[in-house]
Structure formats: structure tokens, C-alpha cells
Design goal:
By secondary structure, the protein is α/β, with parallel strands linked by helices. The chain folds into 2 domains: 145 residues, NAD(P)-binding Rossmann-like Domain (Rossmann fold, 3-Layer(aba) Sandwich), CATH 3.40.50.720; 195 residues, Rna Polymerase Sigma Factor, Chain: A. It has 16 helices and 11 strands. The protein is globular, with a radius of gyration of 20 Å. The structure holds magnesium ion. The site of magnesium ion has 4 residues, from helix 7. The site of magnesium ion (MG) has 4 residues, from helix 7.
Length: 387
């Protein structure tokens, strides 16, 4: 770290995770310092954030939007970069210690790749990076001295719980799932779910894509794959339990039967902060658990019939290779189709499975091959929607 202050780049700073990351930074004066911010389309908001945090760089990752935006309110001394190249350039700056990777979807992979290539610590909120290219990304981090710390609440919990014992003594990792807003729905009721229903998550406030993923439980499927690569775990050691209160963020079971869990109210500021300050812990702004109030914690097994995404996630975690990239892209396209009203809720997962089954599987793909398949899978879903 540079001196006593950790210099932070927040990529995707206008999104839900990005804004929470800036709250964490704002609440830790003298410890964390913003040196770069990026946004894709919300450039007005980006300028407002630049005025508050005075970064050295801002990146408008959509070059066209950058070109037509009026930048007169950008603070003096703040350098403007544009496009994907701007992102890849900024994360390599020597004064950056930690990159918060909060760009949504597969668009986040290249900048995360560059940050790891430059040996940075990446606070990874973008699970697509590991879903798409887990083996390649982990290998790059190892070779270049980069480090990935999870921001996903479940993976942060696993990362914390793993510190309670030796790796060879871990029996399994159990990811908790809220079950989403449709936990108790019948199959018939699920088929009539609207976009508004799917965006109304019971415990977490999130963007539209991840809210739909949570409702289909595809989010948990992607998290199984993420955990498989991040912690180098065979998929059969990764289980899912439904826990509607979202207070226990995940659990690790050791060989002696001891189960270690991490608990906190559902608030992304805690995993973000831990990834920024690790191995230190600071008081911070995240909500705290109040055990003077009675608190009920429920756990139940997931229903694989109503939520077939989980099974798909296990299969893709086992297959590796190109399967993660295809699933991720197919799901992004299918969710976008659902949000536009072109696909019903219960068609999202079958569309993903159909595209996965049609693709030419490769066990050792290159990064460029993954991007080709990403584009291919999106088109295939388009065809699935039309027929
Ligand atoms: Mg999560």
C-alpha cells in the first residue's frame, strides 16, 4: 500500500456496489483514498462523484457517450479517459493499490484482467469475471502477484470462515441463498411472474440484472461457479442452503463437523470494506447486528424442480472450460429479453441450457475464444427468443 493510505480505483462507481464503495471510502478518512472512478452512461453522476472525491482520473467507459458529454464541471486536475482502453490504462497506474471491480456483466472482465496483470489487489464484485474465465483469471493472478478478494457477500463470508481452520480440513462450503422473492411460488405461479415482481427483492436492494438472477436463483448458480474457481474447490464440495433472512452470508464445514458462519445484516458495505482493508478490520459504516432484538434464522434445502438454475450451475462448475462463459452470456441475454418482455420468467433457465447444449465445448479456451463465445451465446438466445 502507498504509505498509510490505500489508494482505490472504483470501476462502475455510479452503480449500486460502486456507490456503496464510495460510502465506505468517505467514512474512513485517512485510510482509504479514491484515485480513479469510472462510469458507463451516468456521466452526470460521475462528475458529481469526482467533485466530491477529487480522483486523479475519471473514465467514461462508453466512448460515444463520453464524446457527447459536456465535461465543464469536471474538477481541474482530474484527467478524463474514455472507452475500454481508458479502463485498461487506468487500472495499471502505479499509485493504485486496490481496484474495486464493480462493472456489471462480462464488460468487467478486461479491466479486471488488466488490473491483475499489473499485480493489483482486486476487490471483485463482478462475479462474471470468474464465471467466464475462472481458470485463466486465477492463473494470471498467481503469475503476476495479483490478488482477488471477494466482494460478493457469500464469498466474503466463505473467505472469512476459511480462516478458522486448515484448508485440508474443509469438508464443504455452504453458500446461503435468500431464495429470492418467489421462494414459496408454485411452478404455475412462477410462469406468470412479471418484471416488476422480479425486481422486488425481499432483503437486498440491487440492480435489475442481479435482482432477476436472484429471483431465478441463477445468481446462486453463478456463485457456485465463482466459488469453484476462487477457492479452488471441487463442485461437489459446494452446497447451497436457502436462508431467507440473509444474515448468515455463508458457512464452512470442517471435517470434525464444526460449521463456521459469518453473520451481519444484509449490507454490501461490509464485504466491500473488508476487501479494501484486509487483513485489517475497521469500525466502518456497515449496519451492525443487534442481538438485543430477537432474531430468527431459518434454513431450508433449495427446491431444484422449481429453480433448475442451481443444477445448471453445478454442471457448469464441473465442466469448466468454455461452459461458464456461455452460461453467463446466455443468461445476460435471456434476462435482458425478460426485462424487455420478450421472454417469460420460466423460459430464462431453459434458454440458457439450450444454448449451452448447442455450443462447441473446449476445455482449455483462450481469453479471446471466451469473448467470441460470449458474443455467439447472446445471438443464440436471440434466436431462441424468436422461435
Ligand atoms: Mg452474492
Amino acid at each position: 500500500m502507498t504509505g498509510t493510505r490505500t489508494n482505490v480505483a472504483v470501476l462502475g462507481s455510479t452503480g449500486s456496489i460502486g456507490r456503496s464503495a464510495l460510502e465506505v471510502v468517505a467514512a474512513s478518512p485517512g485510510l482509504l483514498n479514491v484515485v480513479a472512478l469510472s462510469a458507463h452512461r451516468e456521466l452526470e453522476k460521475l462528475v458529481e462523484q469526482a467533485r466530491q472525491f477529487r480522483p486523479k482520473w475519471v473514465v467514461a467507459s462508453d466512448a460515444d457517450a463520453a464524446g457527447s458529454h459536456d465535461w465543464k464541471d469536471l474538477p481541474k486536475g482530474c484527467q478524463l479517459l474514455a472507452g475500454a482502453a481508458g479502463l485498461e490504462q487506468v487500472v495499471r497506474q502505479p499509485e493504485i493499490d486496490v481496484v474495486v471491480a464493480a462493472i456489471v456483466g462480462s464488460a468487467g472482465l478486461r479491466s479486471t484482467w488488466s488490473a491483475l496483470d499489473a499485480g493489483k489487489r482486486v476487490a471483485l464484485a463482478n462475479k462474471e469475471t470468474l464465471v467466464m474465465g475462472g481458470p485463466l483469471v486465477m492463473q494470471l493472478a498467481n503469475e503476476r502477484g495479483g490478488q482477488i478478494l471477494p466482494v460478493d457477500s457469500e464469498h466474503s463470508a466463505v473467505f472469512q470462515a476459511l480462516q478458522a481452520g486448515r484448508r485440508e480440513d474443509v469438508r464443504r462450503v455452504i453458500l446461503t441463498a435468500s431464495g429470492g422473492p418467489f421462494r414459496g411460488y408454485t411452478q404455475e405461479r412462477l410462469s406468470r411472474v412479471t418484471v416488476a415482481d422480479a425486481l422486488n427483492h425481499p432483503t437486498w436492494r440491487m440492480g435489475p440484472k442481479i435482482s432477476v438472477d436472484s429471483a431465478t436463483m441463477m445468481n446462486k448458480a453463478l456463485e457456485i461457479i465463482e466459488a469453484r474457481w476462487l477457492f479452488d474447490l471441487p463442485p461437489e464440495m459446494i452446497d447451497v442452503v436457502v436462508h431467507p433472512q440473509s444474515v448468515v452470508h455463508s458457512l464452512v464445514e470442517f471435517v470434525d463437523g464444526s460449521v463456521v458462519a459469518q453473520l451481519s445484516p444484509p449490507d454490501m458495505k461490509l464485504p466491500i470494506q473488508y476487501a479494501l482493508t484486509y487483513p485489517e478490520r475497521i469500525a466502518g459504516v456497515a449496519a451492525k447486528l443487534d442481538l438485543r432484538q430477537s432474531l430468527q434464522l431459518d434454513f431450508e434445502p433449495p427446491d431444484h424442480d422449481r429453480f433448475p438454475a442451481l443444477q445448471l450451475g453445478q454442471e457448469v462448475a464441473r465442466e469448466g472450460g468454455t461452459a461458464g462463459a456461455v452460461l453467463n452470456a446466455a443468461n445476460e441475454a435471456a434476462v435482458a429479453g425478460f426485462l424487455r418482455g420478450e421472454l417469460s420468467f420460466t423460459e430464462i433457465v431453459p434458454a440458457c441450457r439450450s444454448v449451452l447444449e448447442q455450443h462447441d465445448f473446449e476445455s482449455q479456451p483462450s481469453l479471446e475464444r471466451l469473448f467470441e463465445l460470449d458474443a455467439w451465446a447472446r445471438e443464440e438466445v436471440g434466436r431462441w427468443v424468436c422461435t
